[in-house]
Specification:
alpha/beta; Rossmann fold; seven-stranded mixed β-sheet; six-stranded parallel β-sheet; elongated
Length: 328
Amino acid sequence: MQIMGAGRILAVAALLAIAAASIVLVTVQNWKQQQASVIWFMPKTTAPGTEFWQVMLQGVHTAAAEVGAEIHVAGTAEEADVEGQIALLEQAVREKPRAVILAATDYNRLVPAASKVREAGITLVTVDSGVSEEQAASLIATDNYAAGRKAGRALGSGLMLGDTAVIISFVRGSTTAIEREAGVRDSMTGISGLRLLQTRYSDSSVEQAYELTRELLEEEPDLKAIAALNEMTVVGSAKAIEEAGLAGTVRLVGFDSSMDEIAYMERGVLDATVVQRPFNMGYLAVRTAAAAAAGERVEPVIDTGSVVITRANMYTEENQKLLFPFIE
């Protein structure tokens, strides 16, 4: 895939951010006149150490300061705890915030709870991952199918006839996981003679991803490529590949960026990663929730974009900004 020059990427990103912000521009005075200005932000997990959600929270707080909203962060310790997220949505209905920003852990199972939020007159906006049946006023996210295709093309570029590849996803039922996997698979259908194994799931656990990868490396001697679909899965898979001495032999393409992922890329273990813009997601989610709660029209879907970063382009100025977003 051809990567644009750093200057062009920066210019395009700036224009997109300005355009998206204008779409969800809310009259701050109208928002502040409302008696309740509390917004609940529900990431998939509040566990420490997951940089994606930490950066998104920075965007959330930045926008909240602009619109005068009070942010209440509510999340579970593990991304796979769907029942825990359902319980939090039900708690939000009881406490009646002005809006809820939800990163849904399951596309279908959260629908009844999401319906209760909407029926209670609470504005619901989804970020990163949505729910079915159009429960939310807007979804602010990466186009995960397109991002999956980017990952698949990066992974498939070095594969040959007879090679074996595998996708290690994270939480079964998450729209993010479903769409990324579909994109990876569709981009690799044209590789002649490729053997693509059944998808494995890490439950967004570094340890589980490590064990899955270690077992695959032992059981599949022809394994040449792994697509790891989120940060924790990438880190676990990279650890297993490096320990087995297979860096450079087994290609690894992932998602997101963290200090661990960057280190694995620098050491030649991680070949490429599809980086999102979590700060933009958080920022635009709050602006959109405030606008919708104030009765303004909002876009049903806002795509915040993604970029493929490899060892060859990771040191460009623009990609360094994506790899090292500011974190308090």
